[in-house]
Design a protein that fits this description.
- The protein is mostly helical and about 160 residues long.
- The protein has one domain (about 15-160): TspO/MBR protein (Ferritin), CATH 1.20.1260.
- It is about 75% helix and about 0% strand.
- The protein is built from six helices and no strands.
- The chain is elongated.
- It comes from Nocardia jiangsuensis.
Length: about 160
């Protein structure tokens, strides 16, 4: 595990700009595929624990802001350049999975593959949270992200089970 810098700094503007740009790009790419108003999505049988549609943009906006900020904290306070590079790679892989889920679910209509993608996103989010928190303890604020992704995995699995053809 990485050692934590004694004098933790706030993210430098360039680090925060880079993580914000990456997170915003993933959000835009994922949003381009997201279609909760589509006839296909509306006809799906949904579990009782499905949140109302308005909950998703609120939750994701908060999580994306947290992800950009805590990742920038980790980059700024990484114990060495190699650790910062590993955080960057983990963030990039996570954002690909994040955006990819919407394409697999809403565009390809592959509920089983979307469930597997959500599970991979959950594992990736937990790993990223571990790395971020190791670089800066304030990064523990990111714990809501893998928790939400785990919920999304359960929801995806329930949708898959209820809508097998």
């Amino acid at each position: 595990m990485a050692t934590i810098a004694k004098d933790r700094r706030w993210p430098a503007p360039d680090a925060l700009a880079r993580t914000t740009l990456g997170v915003a790009t993933a959000a835009v790419v994922g949003s381009a595929a997201t279609a909760p108003a589509s006839a296909w999505y509306r006809q799906l049988r949904k579990p009782r624990f499905q949140p109302p549609p308005a909950a998703f943009p609120v939750a994701w906006t908060l999580l994306y802001a947290d992800l950009a900020f805590t990742s920038a904290l980790a980059l700024e306070n990484a114990p060495d350049p190699g650790y910062a590079e590993r955080v960057q790679r983990a963030l990039a892989a996570n954002l690909v999975l994040n955006a990819g889920w919407s394409w697999v679910f809403f565009r390809a209509h592959r509920l089983g593959a979307a469930t597997l993608t959500a599970a991979a996103l959950t594992a990736s989010s937990a790993d990223l949270t571990r790395r971020v928190a190791a670089a800066d303890p304030r990064g523990r604020a990111l714990i809501a992200y893998p928790a939400w992704c785990a919920f999304a995995t359960v929801l995806s699995a329930a949708l898959w089970r209820r809508n097998r053809r």
